[in-house]
Design a protein that fits this description.
With 84 residues, this protein is mainly alpha-helical. It has a domain of 57 residues. It is built from two helices and no strands.
Length: 84
Amino acid sequence: MKDIQQVLRQKRAEHERLGREIELLQQAELTLREVAPLLADDEEPAVLSEIGEESQANAAAAGAGGAPAITPVNPVRATVPRWP
């Protein structure tokens, strides 16, 4: 039989690790949001704002305890992105 204290320590350690991972992912998202407009063509800011709205809706749904609302994004573009 497992020791309950050991199980609790493992669960707390996993919870802390996941919390740190979530913080790092949120920081990466903010950094990418700052850099994305610099890399975007003239047509893409609308796409980026749509993605931002989706992530805010998902965060609100997750914060409310519900399942995140997943809306498909049309991956087909009229033009090919240009890289400098």
